UniProtKB/TrEMBL annotation:
One of its GO terms (cellular component) is cell outer membrane. PROSITE patterns: TONB_DEPENDENT_REC_3. It comes from the Bacteria. It comes from Agaribacter marinus. This is TonB-dependent receptor.
Length: 732
């Protein structure tokens, strides 16, 4: 692809520049490497975070979760999907054959045709085709739930995930890690910091990883590598400038999982139903951020983000409906072929002024800002498929080759890797939007704070279909004002009640079968809850407990259009009316004085359609009011615990976790449900006191068979069997 050479050239320049800086003459500087701890705690005094303001948890009218680096380490997670399992409010969604991150918050996912949107240091960064996110460069994962539209604007309906990256902290040193795991997993990662000038104003951080692994599914192999350098320059006592680069390259199998039928059940989880032809994904991203403190009260935070992503390769995927031969004999899976070439460019600009003023006895904490983003994506898909109506008991080699058949009891791969596809989708979409927002949190006396927010959004969408003759471009535009209101009442020094209401507004990509673009997605969200600082209740513990009731209502809700006449000629969505979720959440993170820590998260979510829509997918299914939303369990819970022991001269940290996911719908409009499951993980970590740490992780300890998400009954993702990983770390 034309942009690959540019990406690699830009990456080479960035790598050579940061490497030369890293090995330049730098002064020795005091550093606290905490050699006996494998996990760092990051706190840079005076650094402000976009879109949030400087509000303590007890004075924030929203149910937020912050999964810090220690909790991520205890859980042994390496990917964003695994990290989000720690929040019961987040459910896994169809992840496009494992090629991107897809999740819902409080029952609602974002754009079904793109990866789930998330923020990186406050920048919109989830869109695009860079592959699933690795956590090596991430310091914390924040799940920002509820009505935050006045600031986030085009965020996801049920909430927003923000990733805080590892940035320079003006220390010197780092670590290297090497891991060996089940199915020939090899992983190496590193994190290095340096100070580049004698005045200690310029900090450098280099983070990277390489991973190569096979799978419990034969013919499946992945290879990933990433490099994430960053520079921070303290220009003065009032001004900081930070630059970050993100580069990730991955070779991944397009894996639609397993197939299910009522008569034969699930196909074996250890049989890969695709082919060993990897998809290549790549992302090259930049972030530049400047912070200036005018005084103790007022500051400015501005910056830009730019990401180029690409996804290219071939895939063999199970057929739907009457084309699927597995429904006839329980052993022969019929497949179709698609070749994909996706590209995207994403530009984000933002500027934000925050501070406080007083009007009489009322103190106002203000955030005033504006942002602009432009997302340009191109999708090219070619497809080959056929229908086999012959005798499955008398298959010929030509039948197997022509119809891309695979016998799960005796799979033979590579029979026909080059079918002759026809054009299926060729379109370019450009979405441009800008927003202006203001938030005022008023302190009305000692106990009551009221938050008022307002955001104006304006967007334009141009969609060009290159398969039309001549090529056809459809343009739409819209604008909207979204309000937010919230209140926090302090019952005591450690307990507060909160309530909030907000509306959200989001552009939707794609078009329907008739060529029409979609109206914007509109969300109304309400929540009430209580927050308790646990050190106000227990003398020997600290942490935070959140209990929240919520309701989210969404209109212009989209589902994929799988009608045969639609899938025969393209890649379309269909509007399915309104949907709603209501529920209860209980979240707690507790740290005891006896070196015991507990993370707990539970969510009850009742998510359902409010509209009736007939024959949404052409397979005889009708969405009825009251039908559940896909991949959203009523009950989900996660608990993680760890404790430190001193044994002779060795410090042991041991712990484990439980994840429960309830039964949930697996195909929109059908009665196909994924079964509930519970998985167990354990770990032991030994710090020998000489900067060397040895760790053992075991996932799915009891080797449960489970399924994490699905698109339909022919695309169901199985969970990983019991696996183990041993890691050795060295800090310097």
């Amino acid at each position: 692809m034309d942009k690959h050479n540019f990406k690699r050239a830009a990456l080479a320049v960035a790598m050579s520049a940061t490497a030369s800086l890293a090995f330049a003459n730098t002064p020795n500087s005091p550093s606290d490497n905490n050699a006996n701890q494998d996990v760092e705690v990051f706190e840079v005094l005076g650094e402000r975070r976009a879109y949030t303001g400087n509000f303590a948890p007890l004075e924030t009218p929203a149910a937020n979760q912050v999964i810090d680096l220690q909790t991520l380490s205890d859980a042994g997670v390496l990917s964003l999907d695994d990290a989000l399992d720690l929040s019961a409010s987040v459910s896994r969604q169809n992840n496009f054959g494992g090629l991107w991150n897809a999740f819902s918050i409080r029952g609602f996912s974002g754009d079904i045709n793109l990866p789930s949107g998330f923020l990186v240091n406050g920048f919109n960064a989830g869109r695009g085709f860079g592959g699933p996110r690795d956590l090596v460069g991430i310091a914390s994962v924040e799940v920002l739930k509820g009505p935050r539209s006045a600031l986030f604007g085009r965020g996801e309906p049920g909430g927003t995930v923000n990733l805080t990256t590892k940035r320079p902290t003006y220390e010197k040193g780092g670590y290297v890690k090497a891991s060996l795991g089940s199915w020939s997993q090899l992983r190496v990662e590193g994190d290095y910091q340096a100070i580049l000038d004698k005045n200690e104003d310029i900090g450098l951080r280099l983070v990277g990883f390489y991973e190569d692994a096979e799978s419990f599914r034969p013919e499946v192999e992945t290879q990933k590598q990433g490099f994430y350098p960053s520079l921070k320059w303290s220009i003065s006592d009032q001004t900081n400038l930070t630059y970050e680069l993100e580069y990730t390259s991955q070779e991944l199998p397009f894996d639609r999982g397993v197939v299910y039928s009522d008569e034969f059940g699930f196909s074996p989880r250890d049989v890969f139903v695709g082919e060993a032809v990897p998809i290549e994904t790549e992302v090259l991203g930049h972030q530049l951020e400047v912070q200036h403190d005018f005084n103790d009260e007022w500051s400015f935070l501005g910056g830009l983000g730019y990401r180029e992503t690409s996804l290219e390769g071939d895939a063999f995927e199970p057929q739907f409906g009457s084309r699927q031969t597995y429904f006839r004999d329980g052993e022969t899976i019929s497949r179709f072929f698609r070749s994909r070439d996706f590209e995207s460019d994403y530009l984000v600009l933002r500027g934000e002024l925050s501070g406080s003023i007083s009007t009489g006895s009322i103190k106002h904490r203000l955030i005033i800002g504006a942002d602009y983003d432009k997302f340009d994506n191109t999708l090219v898909i070619d497809r080959y498929r056929s229908r086999f109506n012959g005798d499955l008991a008398a298959l010929t080699p030509d039948d197997i080759s022509t119809h891309l058949l695979l016998n799960i009891n005796n799979p033979v791969y590579g029979v026909n890797l080059n079918p002759d596809p026809g054009a299926n989708t060729n379109r370019n979409e450009e979405l441009t939007g800008y927003g202006i927002y203001v938030q005022d949190q008023l302190e009305l006396g000692e106990n009551l704070q009221v938050r008022l927010g307002l955001r104006y959004d304006d967007f334009e969408q141009d969609l060009t279909n290159f398969l039309a003759s001549p090529a056809d471009t459809v343009t739409t535009d819209d604008s909207r004002v979204s309000p937010q209101v919230g209140a926090v009442y302090s019952l005591s020094e450690g307990t507060s009640l909160f309530a909030s209401y907000g509306e959200g507004y989001r552009q939707q990509t794609g078009q329907d079968f008739a060529g029409n673009q979609f109206a914007p997605n509109i969300t109304e969200s309400t929540e009430v809850g209580v927050k308790i600082s646990l050190d106000s209740v227990f003398e020997s513990a600290e942490g935070l407990l959140n209990v929240t009731l919520f309701q989210v209502k969404q209109s212009n809700f989209l589902v994929n259009d799988d009608r045969p006449e639609a899938t025969a000629v393209g890649f379309f969505s269909i509007a399915a009316g309104e949907a709603e979720s209501t529920g209860l959440e209980v979240d707690a993170n507790i740290e005891f004085e006896n070196s015991t820590s507990i993370w707990f998260s539970y969510a009850y979510t009742d998510a359902e359609f409010l509209s009736t829509f007939a024959d949404v997918d052409g397979f005889g299914f009708t969405i009825n009011a009251g039908d559940p939303l896909i991949n959203t369990p009523e009950h989900q819970a996660s608990i993680q615990a760890a404790k430190v022991y001193d044994v002779a001269s060795t410090q042991l940290r041991v712990g484990g976790g439980l994840l429960y996911v309830g039964e949930r719908n697996g195909w929109v409009g059908s009665d196909f449900n994924l079964p509930s499951y519970t998985t167990t993980s354990v770990f032991t970590e030994a710090d020998f006191g000489n900067n060397v740490v040895l760790r053992l992780d075991v996932e799915n300890l009891f080797d449960k068979t489970f399924y994490t998400n699905s698109y339909a009954n022919v695309w169901v993702e199985p969970g990983t069997p019991r696996s183990a990983r041993i890691t050795v770390s060295y800090k310097f």
